[in-house]
Amino acid sequence: MTIFSRIARNLASVATLGLLLSSPTAVQAQDAAAASAAKQSVPTAPQPRYLKPDDPWIYRKTDIPVDKEWLFGEMPNGLRYAVRRNGVPPGQVSIRIRIDAGSLYEKADERGYAHLIEHLTFRQSKYLESGAAIPTWQRLGATFGSDTNAETTPTQTVYKLDLPNATPDHLAESMKLLSGMIREPALSQANLNADLPIVLAERRENAGPNMRVAEATRSVLFDGQPLSDRSPIGTVKTLKAATPQKVRAFHDRWYRPENTVIVAVGDADPKLLAKLIEDRFADWKGKGKPQPQPDFGTPKAPADGKDPNPVGKTDILVEPSLPRGITYAILRPWEQVNDNIEYNRGLLIDAIAQAIINRRLEARARAGGSYLFAGVEQQDVSRSADATFVTVTPLGDDWKAALDDVRSVIADALAEPPTKEEIQREVDEYRVVFANQVEQRDLQAGAQLADTIVNAVDIREAVAAPEVVQQVFTGMQDRLTPEAVFESTKRLFSGTVTRALMLTPKAQEATAEDLRSAMKEKVEASGDSRIAAQTISFADLPPIGTPQQPEIRAPMGVFNIEGVKFPNGVTGMVWRTTNEPGRVTVRVRFGSGYRAFTAKDAPYIPLGEMALVGSGLGDLGEEELDRISTGRKLGFDFRIEDGTFVLEGRTRPQDVADQLYLFAAKLAMPRWNPNPVNRAKAAISMQYNGFDANPTGIINRDLEWLLHDKDPRFATPTPEQIDQTTPEGFRKVWEPLLKQGPVEVMVFGDIDPDQTVAALSRTFGALDPRDPIPAAAEQRTTSFPASNDKPLVITHQGEADQAAAVMAWPTGGGSAGLPESRKLEVLSQLFSNRLLDAVREGTGSSYAPSVSSNWPLDTDSGGYILAMAQLPPEAVPVFFIEAQKIAEDLAANGPDADELARVTEPFRQLLMRVQTGHAFWMDELEGATRDPNRLSNLNSMMTDYTKVTPEEIKALAAKYLTSHGGWRLAIMPEKRSQ
């Protein structure tokens, strides 16, 4: 029963409000179209032959109540399927085809074949010519990479299609195409020649320190088991040795009906979905005899060990670019469980036990412990081991002190039971989670539901409706005793063997024997991280100020959204939606974003992103904020944008007032606790050396700085710069910014408008008048680097065969250009498709080249079109030639009608899907209380994305892609291959 996915972001007058669309016909038409898609009429489906309503296969041998919304079928050839009606998003059907074969099913000389076949399956098959899959799905409205994709893990290969505009004809065509892909892919030498370079490019682009850490971790923790050396990406040697005959042998061995599960969920008659599956797969027969599942092995204790918790293999990995870290695991054999309600009660008790320890570990880190982060998590890993993982990130050089600190907290949890108060705190957290899942069950996306079935099949368990999970949890409250949680804790930290790996940037800092000795050393139980019971109530918190009623409250002319304006200048939008029960988003935009900072303030920008929220408010520090949020659903995300700061939280109807209070209090009565600042300083400095380990790191570190013509505000601060910052300096920079500039509050979702406006009156309406944004900040702009025929070259310290190329062109910014910005997204996608054809499909030199468009709306500059790819060093010049060629051709000739339709149809379908949620409209309308362009351009949205003509694209390409000439960046290895 996948309980948490296995326990599982100046209204000056009434006239200004009236600016807002008085007749939003296009928006209404879009909404009507979505509704029409949701109610699409389909012919009555013939009765499928193999539906088994009285014998749902996933619920066999379990007492978990059957979720009646699912229909299950099983064919004589062994193929199983599950189908379900779901209208989120409307008009879409999500299809998953799971093959019970991953990298653990490979022989030693087949490593990487499961993943290679995934690629070949998309290359060519019975009903799809070579290279036709991507454009075919695009013409059906599906976007490559998001709507059509696949993944290979150690235990399964899953093909994924989220089909928009799922008419009966489109569904029939899609199921036909998918059947040809799964049953009869063209595993020819020509296709192998085409796809092998792409797979090797994917492997090359992921190589480096992180891959070495992953490989070393598997090697140590799963020593002696196939999982220790069976990465899905395979090895260069085995991949290059692949032949059509060897690949076909793997396919024939595992791609069989009895190894296949098909899931189809969406806005269609489930019986139609079942019939389509049966029509295309019922006559499928496997080749040869079915093969038994491979032996995945089991964790084993050292042969001569008598310790009840023996320490097995330990190792040290030296990676100069990465921070220190220790991972150890208490391993137990994986066993096929009897997935019943009692088993899941045990999982819930385990979850409470882990949550208590993790809260204690975090409390010690916050208080200035010797580690930056630490955590405990139980996982069943690839049907190979049942493991409890402990991860430690030391704060400094003294790794042993950090390890001892973490182990002492765990030792305390093993020494005596937790308190009732600690248990109740975690129970209250889970109660909110499960109640929220019940409230929002009708909002579950079909893709999510389909993935849940696939994951349950993979771990050989069942699925449960949200009501069942809540009922199980509610019905076991008397079992959540200190003694029960204590017993669970002891089980979680007992096992067959314990293994450990330490990552360090310094050679000879420690040996494997040093780590083994540290793991075997007894530690004193430390109870100083046990969190004492303390009651904090919102009712006891000080008021923000004197409540004020809005001086304006009026319809905005879009749906039933209301605009409000308070005497202190705060504006807001309130929208009650009826199609998203239990879901509310609160977004607060204030101040001037990046414009607020000077060059000398720049190091405090990332510190603010990490530490501003944690610094607290009023009398509430981090621990108090956590405590007051217990039993509520509250969010506290913070981000910095080009022209504004944003606070955002996902909440629920009963917690809206508290969410508004927290955000308003952050502006009105900020706290300046130094600990979060010092912790953020350590985290930022620790990760800096890793940036030059590969091209991606250089991009993450330097690209925005370079695209803003080396503006210091967009630079990643060095450890030396971070070291110069102080908590006092942090307050000096950030305190005035919390007081400056206009405030706009948006509350969209399942709300009572009157109660929400009343809560706004008590919080944001009660704020003191805001300080004006300084003229210097208002006048700060950004610039774009000059074009360069010779690329700027930056080197990295990573693999000799890794490089990256970037080419960019300046565009613009500002809400007045909204229609043009949307058409630039179409242009960028056209460019991206051509670049994919040129450097992925054409040469195999890059796995995922891409082109994107950025157009800030709160500032009048800063936009750009960006093309990039990871490549081998010798292919970098080719990238610039191809990108320039594409840009010039689009400017000279534009796209043809079919090429353009392959972009605009996915955009059309995407808009039809996303506009049913309030989050989409929040993104489109933010800023509208002061900027009429946000609303006046709303009507043209669908047209801008889907009715753009080849001539318009040609003109935009000439305006932006060839007039500037383009700025080029090459990221090359310091050490080149010989």
From TrEMBL:
Domain of life, per lineage: Bacteria
Recall the GO molecular function terms of this protein's record: metal ion binding; metallopeptidase activity
Q: Which SUPFAM superfamilies match?
A: LuxS/MPP-like metallohydrolase
List, alphabetically, the InterPro entries matched: Metalloenz_LuxS/M16, MPP/UQCRC_Complex, Pept_M16_N, Peptidase_M16_C
Q: Which residues form the Peptidase M16 N-terminal domain?
A: 92-206
Tell me the first and last residues of the signal peptide: 1-29
- Domain Peptidase M16 C-terminal, by residue range, is 242-427, 742-903
- A Pfam family cross-referenced in the UniProt record is Peptidase_M16_C
Name the UniProt key words of this record, in alphabetical order: Hydrolase, Metalloprotease, Protease, Signal
Positions of region (Disordered): 284-313
Its family remark reads:
Belongs to the peptidase M16 family.
Q: Which PANTHER family does UniProt cross-reference here? A: METALLOPROTEASE, MITOCHONDRIAL-PROCESSING PEPTIDASE SUBUNIT ALPHA
Entry protein name? Insulinase family protein
Originating species: Altericroceibacterium spongiae
